[in-house]
Amino acid sequence: MSDALVVTVCVFAGMVAWTRATGAAMDAAHTAACVVVIALWMLGLSLEDTRSHRVTGAGASEFRRMWQATIVVVAIIAISAVFFPHSSTKGTIAVAMPLGFAALLLERAAWREWLKSQRRKGGWSTRVLLVGSGESVRTIHDELERAPAAGFRVVGVCKPPEDASALVSAVRSSMAAASADTVIVTGTDGLEPDRVKEISWSLEPGREHLMLAPNITDIAGPRIRTRPAAGLPLIHVETPRLGRTASLTKRGFDIAASAALIALLSPVLAVVALLVKLSSPGPVLYRQERIGHLGETFPMLKFRSMRQGADAELAALLEEQGTGTEPLFKVKNDPRITRVGRVLRKYSLDELPQLFNVLDGTMSLVGPRPQIAEEVALYSKPARRRLLTRPGITGLWQVSGRSALDWDQAVRLDLYYVENWSLISDIHILLRTVKAVVLPGDSAS
Asked: What GO molecular function terms would the record report (predicted)?
């Protein structure tokens, strides 16, 4: 309903604006064109299944479907203009469609935020019964509990009985007791294919659903394809890679965005530099050797936020709080931070000089945070995959909990980013970073 309202208002508003700008009259032909465009657009959104409960609130995939529907409508209008030329065509393509698409994105973003807030409270979520045993159930349960905004609320667990023939009745009784509407089978190794089919047959079509959780995690949707073969629902997982085209795209975005931000924020950089200089003795910039792409060392820049000689005090402070053996070295209530530095860190202003690191190619706007050699020396083999991409000013784990996350969680999020990179994900993380800076919690490292 809200999609129809947004599309209708924007198409008519765009057409009215176009006719006024060109001096044309808003006649019956223009009105008819608006009606046709609205009908085509709503049909396209429906065919792309953008209003399905599985799509609404899904973020990037939801927006991608909306974009595909919009592009098809634009193509139809452009082709029809060849055979039926009219001034309304230009108005539709130049004003109404861009205005409508932007409004649809804002409307869906607002719905998504509302839906996420409701799901965090336990509402508007799929009530899930997990079927399985041991580690597979714990893994899926923990993952779903960690992401309540995904819309899956675990309400019960059913351990398969020793008597395989009693599985369906056990699942049905567990669903009834927990008021579950979806069954997720967390591991099928111990279940015969016929038993899984029997579970699906026992579910009420359209109201109850069956899902299978394979033994893979942290794989983004675009890397997963279902490939049925000989009646087998095979899952094809693309090998993680950042090809030449993707690398050039990321680097081009970094250069353009960092140059623009340096120009835009130059007054802020000057003011912060002056405050740092006046607040305490020492240089304005702090340079520290960090480990970057493929293990190369580079000087990372920051506005100095600590007193001079702070590095020499680090080992003693970490030993005092008992965290010196983890790669994610973080001192709580750090006494070395100056008063100005505390404000800079709260709003992440101390990180701004790293825009020059991005411009010279040693860093990226988004990526795993660079660490010192002593921390990298403690990396496990999986953690070393963080070095496969350029380190970033911000990253996925910074906007997913910032310094509240432990090392294992941080590594997992960084590896997810490295193996599932896309330009859309970079833009999304940057937008979330702006939100985190405006509403700061713990400072990022």
From this structure: phosphotransferase activity, for other substituted phosphate groups
